[in-house]
Design brief:
The structure holds 2 protein chains of 2 kinds. By secondary structure, chain A is mainly alpha-helical. Chain A has 3 helices and no strands. By secondary structure, chain B is an all-alpha fold. Chain B has 11 helices and no strands. Classes of the chains: A mainly alpha, B mainly alpha. Chain A: Keywords: Membrane, NAD, Quinone, Transmembrane, Transmembrane helix, Transport.
């Protein structure tokens, strides 16, 4: 039932956000093409914005995926933590320590810099 | 059943969304005024006047934007803020949706915010918004882990992923004292998530407004309201996770919650006005090398505290 309520709230707020845009803009004329050129501080656009570009932090996103997988284990772990006690602490500590080696390695490789 | 389960939660969230966004706008203007920024007209009426003005303005268009995504992104950000507000507990029973896994849901709101903000920057088909979105993804992917570790830290003593349980577990001592690293780290996450002040890398002035540099009129209104509402949702989560939510003497629970949310909002808005914007390439290193290990420390601290 809570999920149904959440879905209802999601749809309503999404609808409200779209309606506030759609209602006043229904009858608005489009700006002319010279006006529709992208704002570049007065410069003229030489290329499409959607050209290929280098994602400098791409290796960082790969490191993130390792940690995101870890988060999946961590949610159920958090619920049973007190019950399981020190054992749970040690297990997650080891897991985190191994992942932290990954951070140190990535740091040495310059993953967190935008070269 | 229909009234209690659907209508009341929706009314609650709508109320918090509108009033919250208005409070953020007023507070930010008051703080700016206190720091000497010139004010035109009444501080209390200015947000409404601006809202009405944006409603009647013409919406800008770029040459060939991704129309659906461009209009959808502000509405989606608003929807995410509404979902965040829906899980904030005002008292033991006064919660819009008391989901058993509300901490996980809030985590997914944070993750999806990154997607929506990038969508907003990308869909305009202009360089400055795209650069804003591109930068934001680097920031968003860096802060999300810190946020998750800190939130898992508050879930440990509660033995639950439910915000009402998290608040109930702070009966004896609030998490802000029990896990002293938690709240400062979480506030940084909050500034990042709403790209406010020092962590405003998406919509910053050096990009002439970043992802919002090509929008005007109604889409801009929705985007601004959504940002303010997200700030309110965040302060609600921070108040329940660290400041004991509705707990407190003398006053009724919801009132305590409102006071704590206002306090968090005030701190965030003050930080937003006081601190300079951080360079994005430094920000990634700072988050991964300094703040993430600090959040590990917070988790270990929370774990030991929960076992003792």
């Amino acid at each position: 039932m809570e999920l149904l309520t959440l879905l209802f709230i999601l749809l309503l707020s999404l609808g409200a956000g779209l309606l506030v845009q759609w209602l006043p803009m229904r009858h608005q004329p489009m700006p002319t093409y010279p006006q529709r050129a992208p704002f570049l501080g007065g410069g003229t656009p030489d290329s499409h914005a959607w050209s290929r570009y280098h994602v400098r932090y791409y290796p960082m996103t790969l490191l993130l995926i390792a940690f995101e997988m870890e988060m999946m284990f961590m949610y159920p772990w958090a619920v049973v933590f007190v019950e399981t006690g020190m054992k749970a602490m040690m297990e997650m500590g080891m897991f985190l320590a191994i992942l932290s080696v990954g951070i140190v390695y990535a740091w040495r490789e310059g993953v967190f810099k935008w070269q | 059943m229909f009234l209690n389960e659907l209508l009341l939660p929706v009314l609650m969230v709508t109320f918090m969304l509108t009033v919250g966004a208005y409070v953020v706008a007023v507070l930010d203007r008051l703080i700016a005024g206190a720091f000497g920024a010139p004010q035109a007209g009444s501080v209390w009426l200015a947000p409404m006047a601006r809202g009405a003005w944006l409603m009647t303005q013409h919406a800008n268009a770029t040459e060939a934007p991704d129309w659906q995504a461009w209009r959808l992104a502000p509405a989606l950000y608003l929807a995410l803020a509404a979902i965040g507000l829906a899980v904030v507990p005002w008292s033991e029973s006064l919660v819009a949706t008391d989901l058993v896994t509300s901490v996980v849901l809030w985590g997914s709101v944070e993750a999806l915010a990154t997607v929506v903000i990038f969508l907003h920057g990308w869909s305009a088909n202009a360089l400055l918004p795209l650069i804003g979105g591109y930068r934001y993804v680097a920031l968003g992917l860096s802060y999300i882990l810190i946020s998750m570790f800190v939130l898992i830290g508050v879930a440990l003593p509660a033995e639950s992923l439910q915000f009402t349980q998290v608040v109930a577990s702070q009966e004896a001592l609030w998490n802000v004292l029990r896990q002293p690293l938690g709240l400062p780290l979480f506030l940084i996450v909050g500034l990042g998530m709403t790209f406010w002040g020092p962590l405003n890398l998406a919509d910053s002035a050096d990009l002439a407004g970043g992802t919002a540099s090509e929008i005007s009129g109604p889409p801009r209104l929705v985007w601004d309201v959504a940002r303010a509402a997200m700030l309110v949702a965040f302060s609600g989560v921070a108040a329940s996770a660290f400041l004991g939510g509705w707990l407190g003497p003398w006053l009724p629970g919801p009132l305590w919650m409102a006071i704590k949310m206002l306090a968090v909002l005030l701190v965030l808005l003050l930080l937003g006005r006081l601190l300079p914007r951080i360079a994005p390439e430094r920000c990634v290193t700072l988050m991964w090398v300094v703040l993430l290990p600090l959040s590990f420390l917070d988790l270990v601290w929370a774990g030991i505290g929960a076992l003792l």
